[in-house]
Amino acid sequence: MTENEAKTQRGRKPIGGKAMTAAERMQRRESKLKEQGVRTFRMRVAPLHMEWIEAAAARQGIAVSAALGDVLERALDRYTGVMARAKFLEVNCGNVEAAADFVSTQLVPPLPSFDELAAQFGPAPAKI
């Protein structure tokens, strides 16, 4: 081994005199995100929900946390879009009732029953 190879360090370049610990790196990352207005939350996920999140992660070949993040991001995008349109109806159109109706119908649209799906797409499924 040459002298140059022995002096070459692996990993991230240290900031200052020595490398940061994992906790210091995480703290630094969290503070940068906080500066951008990002907030961090802990949450609990019910077993039934987790089953579908884990299945989605396996299908996509990604981490469970990434799959959960994707689902939450899509849901929050939907929420933000619905609320922005409701605000438009309320402020620009001056119609508070239409805004309330829009939110109630668009935020959580009703799901079709299993029988309705079977009638539309194929034979009746086994009862779940």
Topology record:
Layout lengths: L2 H5 L14 H14 L11 H14 L3 H28 L4 H11 L7 H8 L7
Helix pairs in contact: 3-4, 4-5
What multimeric state do the chains show? Answer: single chain
Kindly name the structural category.
mainly alpha
* Helix run count: 6
Q: Which whole number gives the mean pLDDT?
A: 88
Order of helices and strands: HHHHHH
End-to-end CA span: 66 Å
Instruction: Classify the helix fraction into a percent range.
Output: 55-70%
Shape: flat
Strand content: under 5%
Number of strands: 0
Unreliable segments (pLDDT under 50, ≥5 consecutive)? Answer: none
Based on CA atoms alone, the radius of gyration comes out at 25 Å
Q: Sheet bearing the most strands, described?
A: none
Description:
- The protein is mainly alpha-helical.
- The protein has six helices and no strands.
- It has helices at residues 3-7, 22-35, 47-60, 64-91, 96-106, 114-121.
- Helix 3 (47-60) crosses helix 4 and helix 4 (64-91) runs antiparallel to helix 5 (96-106).
- The longest helix is centred in the middle third of the chain and has 28 residues, at 64-91.
- The mean pLDDT is 88.
